[in-house]
Amino acid sequence: MLWSSLIQVAGFSRRLLEEEPAEPAWYVDGNPSWASHGDRRLLQTSATPQFTPNVTVAKDGSGDFTTISGALAKAPKKLLHGRYVIYVKEGVYEETVEVDKNTWNITMYGDGEQKTIVTGSKNFIDGVKTYHTATFAAIGDGFMAVDMAFLNTAGANKHQAVALRVQADRAIFLQCRMEAYQDTLYAHSHRQFYRDCLISGTIDFIFGDASAVFQHCILTVRRPLNNQQNIVLAQGRSVLQESTGFVIHNCRIVAIPALADAKPKFRNYLGRPWQEFSNTVIMESEIGDFIEPEGYTPWEGSFALDTLSYAEYNNKGPGADTSKRVNWAGFKVISQEEASAYTVAPFIQGDDWISKMGAPVRLGLYNE
To answer: Measuring CA to CA, which residue among 309, 252, 258, 307 is closest to residue 279?
Structure first.
């Protein structure tokens, strides 16, 4: 994010001074090694759409291109009708990728989030502004990614290091993995939909000012450095009239074992206000016991505590008890009617475009 790395926030500095802790291997047989049976079932419930590719990317030379960037360079510009489909075969693609603003209606799919991996390591400490650290950036409208992983491997001691930045309107990420530490997913702007995704990080690891719905996803909090605390969401609405916000719907917010085992050592929060009118809703989701009872933490002093809009509805799990949540004017437990306004159909007009792009979606609440 575009703030000073020296700002002191809530008792800790964004300057990371210690060595990155070791973590166990995350995946076994294509699933997180730490995931419960329920987690694995959650990630695998949706049927994968079937696509016919226009071009194929393969590192071994068996396709039309050996790089994703090469395929995008030859994609049609400002495509208005139909979709241009790029199949990215299994492999680790070490490249910085951008779907530019004139490249519309691209579908990009891989062989699975453990097989088709886009990775990079640009980071703030090495002199790169947060915006430009993204390994993969989706800007052109109507972008859809399926069965892929987007990683930034810079590590916790490199500060802000974005794995995925999304500025595309009507963007969909289905069965994808986004993995880094600080600032993993920059949900920058416009309407975005994430379904059956695994997103992991430490500080503000989902941030930005998009109108974004995360449905049926697993948000995984990693063990930070010893001088840090974790924050899942940092939404950046700066004008009250904006219709932006983050909606966490029917997701699980969990800690990896390396963090859960060290629970007393680290403080973990659902969110904090990046901008004055930060807007976040968590509903019909499961929240783990590692989340602090107050739920949220200030950005700096009393900034935005009266103007933010944080809401929860019908969550479950040991971290879902709202009786000890923050006593801020902007926080409330909302009703079913109020929660309905944050579902896919009204909030991002998803009934008009998500199913047409082939993604599974729940348009309303699950308990309706």
So the answer is: 309
Please check whether residue 174 is in contact with residue 146, taking contact to mean a CB–CB distance below 8 angstroms.
yes
In this predicted model, what pLDDT tens digit does every residue of 75-113 receive, in sequence order?
Answer: 999 999 999 999 999 999 999 999 999 999 999 999 999
Q: Is the pTM of this model over 0.70?
A: yes
Distance CA 155, CA 152 (A): 8
- With a cut of 70, list the residues of the chain below it in pLDDT: 1-47
Active site residue 183: no
Q: Is 259 helix (H, G, I), strand (E, B) or coil?
A: helix
The active-site residue, picked from 141, 169, 183, 204, is 204
- Rounded distance between C-alpha atoms, residue 324 and residue 38, angstroms: 28
3-class SS string, 300-363: CCCCCCCCCEEEEECCECCCCCCCCCCCCCCEEECCHHHHHCCCHHHHHCHHHCCHHHCCCCCC
Q: Specify whether the CB–CB gap between 308 and 273 falls below 8 A.
A: yes
